């Protein structure tokens, strides 16, 4: 098996049409929304636009570069791809506030439809933190500790379904924790930190199983145990990094919220004294 280099991953680009179309459509729709706000004299936060640009760039890198080309040959390359599309892309998407953009820039019918969807029973269920937590963590166990990974490597439909699942599960897990969109179920900040910590065992258990396993978990696709152990190290490290980053974002949002609450209280007290 020929060794892969960083140059192979960064320079070995080739077109994968389906994810490329998705990236173009997502970027285009977001840009249209921002432009509509601008024509109305309203400013969209630059940081949110940069977050969406980063999400699209990460998705393109994961699927069109050498990472996408070689992920079916090396487990550790597949794991880099998983970290990009299952962790980084969802985190940046929820920070980009796409639902808020639709609610501010969409046509009246679109805004009404989205509001009804968010208020519906299905909207409350899908956005519940426990649902996102179960899909995110359970998906990791189901993908890496069952024959699902071998199936995804052999079947294009299963491969596309795997990518779709990890993106959506990541978004549903992170949106109630660090997202700024108006999701129906929003936890208090302390509970958000606990939810972040509750996801740690999923990464640890899966990584430990991959690291200590005596047989490959996907023998047809990735028969090398040393390759599997390298993938486990990447997975474990990414899980720890995700925990630190998300906890940091929650902590900052909590601090900002407390400052705003204190400012509102000060203004109310000043108004009472003047009255």
Give a written overview of the molecule.
The chain is built from 14 helices and no strands. α9 packs parallel to α13 (200-212) and α13 (200-212) packs antiparallel against α14. The model has no long low-confidence stretch (mean pLDDT 92). The protein has one domain (6-274). By secondary structure, the chain is mainly alpha-helical.
For this entry, give a set of tags.
275 residues, mainly alpha, globular
* Contiguous helical run count: 14
**End-to-end span in angstroms?**
80 Å
Runs in which pLDDT lies below 50 for 5 or more consecutive residues are none
Number of strands: 0
C-alpha-based Rg, rounded: 21 Å
β-strand amount: under 5%
Largest sheet composition = none
* Integer count of domains: 1
SSE-based structural type = mainly alpha
Overall geometry comes to: globular
Mean pLDDT: 92
What is the string of SSEs from the N terminus onward?
HHHHHHHHHHHHHH
Percent range of helical residues: over 70%
Quick structural summary:
The chain is mainly alpha-helical.
What secondary-structure arrangement, pairings included, does this model have?
Elements: H1 6-11, H2 17-39, H3 46-64, H4 66-70, H5 75-95, H6 98-105, H7 108-119, H8 121-126, H9 129-144, H10 148-154, H11 156-178, H12 189-198, H13 200-212, H14 225-274
Helix pairs in contact: 2-3, 2-6, 3-5, 5-11, 5-14, 6-7, 9-11, 9-13, 10-11, 12-14, 13-14
